[in-house]
Design brief:
The chain has about 250 residues and is an alpha+beta fold. It is built from five helices and 17 strands. The longest helix is centred in the N-terminal third of the chain and has 11 residues.
Length: about 250
Amino acid sequence: MKLPGPLRFCLGLREMTLSETGRVNDEVFCIKERVVNTYIFRGKRGYLMVDAGMCERTVEREMGKLGIDPAQITDIVLTHADGDHVDALGLFKNAKVYMHRDEEQMINGKTGKFPLVKFKWKWGAYTLFDGDETLSLAGLKVRVFHAPGHTPGSCSFLIGTDYLATGDHLSYKNGRFGLVPDIFNMDTRAQEVSIKTLPAPETMKFVLTSHYGVIENGKPARIQVAAAALDGQAGRSPENRRQADHHGN
């Protein structure tokens, strides 16, 4: 017997396993909020963020632990437009925002995620991209994988060669990747089909999920938690960090 929707929703939230705010490595950073991880990449021409998070105050606080100012974010690419992925967009005054063309219906009042629930965009201009193309953002190569199911315009992104940012496409439990609970999806059958078009997560060096943390070589990654980044150097260029180290000696 299928459990009632509210109970399935609560159980789905309870199974989420987020990574802490911290450094994945010197070029990639993880932000933790109550129910979602977002990610920041240091590029050659700025900072790229995958999703914006859900609470401006929390995101700003967590970024501060990493020494990154929201004003440094130049580009934000959205896996989809659910509130926990976009509600902190107002924090990023200098960022260009990108989403899949099929996701626009979710932000203009045309389509609702749930019955009688429709969403209105309030963060200004954005740029639409089409499926399965390659973008250049903050000097980084970002390959788009359109994978509808969670929402019509849901996407995953291959950033460089080592990082697969999956949004809400994949769960990770007991050492295995799988689907997120169907209570969160608009069309789970479509998602089952579309995620087969993604690079096999088991082959990726890093899989950056929205609700199950960072997976490195098939296992939960060991994140340098933000306390190790409180020196404020995370947001500096390598040259400036070397100069700061030199003056400190």
